[in-house]
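Protocol step 4 of 5: obtain the predicted structure for the target chain.
Materials: sequence only (see below). No template structures provided, no constraints applied. The aim of this step is simply to have a reference model before the mutagenesis design in step 5. Sequence pasted as it appears in the construct record:
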Amino acid sequence: QAFALYKTSDPDNYRAARGLLESQKSRFPRAATSRDAESLYLRIQGVLARQGDPEAAESVRVRANPPVPPVAPVPPTAPNPPTPPNGRRHVTQTGCPSDDQYDVQLTALNALLQMDAESAVPILKRVLARRDPCSAELRRKAVFILSQKRTEGTEDILLDLVRNDPDPEVREQAVFWLSQVGTERAVSALDSILRSSPDPELQKKALFALSQIHGPRAGQILRDYAQRSDAPGEVREQAIFWLGQQHSDENAAFLRDLYARLTDEDLKDKVIFSISQMHSDENARWMLDLALNEREPVEMRKKALFWAGQTGADIGGLVALYGRTTNEEMKDQLIFVYSQRHEPEAVTKLIDIALHESDQDLRKKAVFWLGQSHDPRARQALLDIINQ
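Step 4 output (structure tokens):
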């Protein structure tokens, strides 16, 4: 009933809903819905607080900033007891607060942030400054809440988390939200992570964050990392990928040049893909030239040919390639590329291969793909082959 009243968005109904929830808490403290009721109660109090209800505002402030219990002294480590015959040992409880307690506090913090960011941010800062293992999940959720309403101190808090929080997930989330800040300080922090962090996952998050910041310095940092021979290959692949998602002539020229300097085939593969995502005549020509380059590994040539076909390279150029290569694997790939195109020239070339190619395997493949075509000329060509 309280939820239904809350959804009406009527101030009088908000107060009625609050009263119902207070009644439930008093009369049925062990109700199965008590956790949902507590969260709903705080959301209602947050709305009423924004509408000027002083009682609601005070309730939100208190719930968002509960007293922090003193940290118990760490007892000396006891020696491990001998293992009893049944192989079991007594496991002590950690004493961490339950997720329910944290959820209630976070709901209150979120409500306070919407109502009064100046009061909420210092409380969030205190929550995020905690370093005890019990608060890791609380800090992860608090980072998200902080990110939803950027204030003057948000960047400093995020930078501190990236540098000092002991929990990897908290650090990764802070890195991601730095990308939404996008200032020069944020870019410098992300660059520092790439230069000094030994954590590949954190480096990947930093690369993604930089890819979301549209500025010359962020782009240059991505390019610098992509060509670092001392960096982990899987992380360099990420840098190459994100460069391809930023469609710029500068990135395209850099990637074409980078390809020529690479020896790792996984990295080369990523470069070809990234170039294919930046549609231009120059990039299409580069892929076709690569497909013809017999000094390159045939797998790289086939991938260049595939992506050229998928990204709209000129069909005339693709048709001309068939007669310019003697490699059977490349011809096989070209037949597949023609089958994926809808231009009349592609069907014409398939018919020509089916009728005149001397290699029987290639002829059969052309015939197969003609059978998948809806072009009436394909049907007639198949009839001609049958009647030969």
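Step 4 remarks: Residues 67-93 have pLDDT under 50 and may be disordered. The longest helix spans residues 11-27.
Proceed to step 5.
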